[in-house]
Amino acid sequence: MSQITLKDAAGKDTGKVDLDDAMFGIEPNVSVMHQVVTAQLAARRAGTQSTKTRSEVRGGGAKPYRQKGTGNARQGSIRSPQFAGGGVALGPKPRKYGQKTPKKMIGLALRSALSDRAADDKIVVVDAWGWDAPSTKSAKAALAGLGIEGKVLVVVGRDDAVAALSFRNLPEVQLITPQELNAYDVLCNEYIVFTEDVLPSAAKPAEASTVEQISAAVSDVAEQAADAAESAAEVVTEAVTAAAEKVADVAEGAISAVTERIEDLRSDDAEDDEEGEES
Description:
Elements: E1 2-7, E2 13-19, H1 21-24, H2 30-44, H3 103-119, E3 123-126, H4 136-145, E4 152-155, H5 161-167, E5 173-176, H6 183-188, E6 191-195, H7 208-278
Parallel strand pairs: 1-3, 3-6, 4-5, 4-6
Antiparallel strand pairs: 1-2
Helix pairs in contact: 2-3, 4-5
């Protein structure tokens, strides 16, 4: 791994930091960067341009004059494309300009752009900004202390709101989160400034934190669903047990009543038999 000097917010050296060769040390693939940037710019297009055809323009429903005998070319409508105010032939219609770009190609373009900036010593790593309150003046002084001039891309974490508020009013600074880091923004800026905690690497790429957050959220949802299922199972078990007990009680009462009725019928039959023998 290559090493660069780690600096503080005042521009002083505080040590060394490793740059992952897989992210900052590859041979830039110019054709892939061009394709990815072209696709990204194409996806920004609104695609809302539209023109009216002759069937959409108002008017022109009647034939302007008879077919023959006028000396003019035959016409069927004054809204044909050759007339002023007529429809547009083969004009643009709303469409999508987005292109499907493979994820591996997008990642390769980002690594190529970062490697290109690293080869020109345009990568700056700061240990931490260390500001207690937002201050544009402090942010400007920090860039001057780091020796940065021109357009700069500052990568800040989502939790570093103080740094984001400090840099956002500087016209030459573009702010971006590690999850949004892309080849186009890297190539549009001369310097790329990272803090040590958001420095991307192959083992933990820039978007890894988002994946971890999604995984944690999925785990939490799964645990909540398991708890809810367990609670529901307990409730259902209790309800089934109570219903079974009630059914057992009802059945026992019915059996007792039937048994008593049978005994009464038997006793009545026995009395009738005795009376018949006496008679």
